[in-house]
Amino acid sequence: MVNLLRPASVSSSRLGTVTGLWKEQSPYDRTALNTGIVHFGPGRFFRGHLAYIIHNYLVQKGSQEQKWGICGVSLKSQRTLKRLKPQTFLYTLTKHSSSAKKREEAEVIGSIKEIVNGREKCDYVLEKMTSSSVHLVTLTITQGGYHLDKSFNLDTANEDIAHDLQNPSTPITAIGFIVEALRRRRDRSMNPFTTLSCDNLPRNGEILRKAVLAYAEVIDPQLTEYIRDNATFPNTVVDRIVPQEQESDYNYPRRLLQVRARAPIVTEPFWQFVVEDNFTGERPKWEDVGVIMTKDITPFLYMKSRFLNAVHSFIACLAVRAGIEYMHEAIRQPEIHLFTRLLMDDIAAATPVPREMCEQYMEQVLLRLSNEDLPDPTERIASETARKVGKYIFPILEDAYSRKVNMKRIILPVAAWLLAVREGASESGQSYHAKDTESAITAIQEGAVISGILGLENCEQTEVVDNECHQALQDLQTHGLLTTLKNYSDGGFLNETASA
């Protein structure tokens, strides 16, 4: 970590280079690193999350652990490769928070040995994956990179997957690379590597394993059997806010490190990485640097999806109706902050996770979302809200119904968003254009509430949800947002029986 007690500014003529700074202050010898990890998708989140964690591990372990260098593989955009190659794939990372004791910390990250174009250097990548030094293949390729259909099954009709099925030895997809590399390792009597999805998908390892097996089955049923019996795909939970690049990002390495940096990363101090401890061979002793290794990832999935993903959407829904531009501005509104804290209590009561596990996570979320130094536009978080209602929010309502937890506060933000979509405006009259599917927007404008948007069959449960939603809409229209938030905060709803 750099010493930040340096001059506040340095003239541009005196700025150094990232590679030069590494040579001066390198915490480990990159030339001695072996490639132990092949990673698909070396974008911003990966560099702010997994590559950062591996870097910290290498700093702590020093010469004891020289086998976990990373080879990044780009299959689509080559922007990261082109930008970082002149820096020998070093980059700067700044942790920035208005609430942290150390508001700004910057360092150079050295865990990535190389990044290659997988389509141009297909065999090079496959041989790297077949190397005896490689024990992990990791991925941050977003949901689209898995080529799944709406049911989260492999879409064999996808153009790229179809190409790989016809040309399995020269793949262009991550799934194709994984299967071909596992085939080569099997044929060479080598242990399979562990494949680790680091994408924000529920039970991402299970989804990846299912896709890999479906692909292998088309090529060679015996290979499918080998992968099923020998390879592992642990589930993970990943969390860190790594915003899109902004021009101001370049100021931090200049000011804090006195270097010109290409593709700098600016992120929050908080990070989380939870991994199922189910590996086929060697792995880093990640727990030594704060990674949570567990046999049961379920509680962590609940907490991430409900107290971060769902709460993020809840606040965005309220902010849209209030006409608030940034998330930190919304959570700092007294009425929204109090309401959100009580709402999180309701969510905890509806969630099958020990209360003590929820408490610390809840406080962290409120602190993180109020970080004004990483401004996050409400519009970005509010996009695709209809999908998020189905993915994150309705499961909470289902558990609230079965556990007899009152739904009023859980439903109110959704109702606020429905009003904004229906009226095309915030409460103060600012225009609002929802970024959602045309079918969802049409249904809302025609008067649909939660079950209608999600296409749910009518039953006692959906009737309760819709009735509460209609009541919330009426309250908002009658009293306005802030008064309704106060009323719902003072209502003493926690743990009351759900409405019949």
Report on the structure:
The protein folds into 2 domains: 12-295, NAD(P)-binding Rossmann-like Domain (Rossmann fold); 299-489, Orthogonal Bundle (N-(1-d-carboxylethyl)-l-norvaline Dehydrogenase, domain 2), CATH 1.10.1040.10. With 500 residues, it is of the alpha/beta class. The protein has 21 helices and 13 strands. The chain has helices at 18-25, 44-48, 50-61, 79-84, 122-129, 159-166, 174-187, 204-219, 221-230, 251-257, 298-322, 327-331, 334-350, 355-369, 378-382, 385-402, 408-423, 438-445, 450-454, 460-479, 481-489, and strands spanning 16-17, 35-40, 69-74, 91-96, 104-109, 112-117, 136-139, 194-197, 236-239, 259-260, 265-267, 272-276, 292-294. 47% of the residues lie in helices and 11% in strands. A hairpin with a 7-residue loop joins strand 4 (91-96) and strand 5. The chain has a 5-stranded parallel beta sheet with strand order 6-3-2-7-8. Strands 5-4-11 form a 3-stranded mixed beta sheet, with helices on both faces. It has a 3-stranded mixed beta sheet with strand order 9-12-13, with helices on one face. The chain is globular. The longest helix is centred in the middle third of the chain and has 25 residues, at 298-322. Residues 1-8 and 492-500 have low confidence and may be disordered.
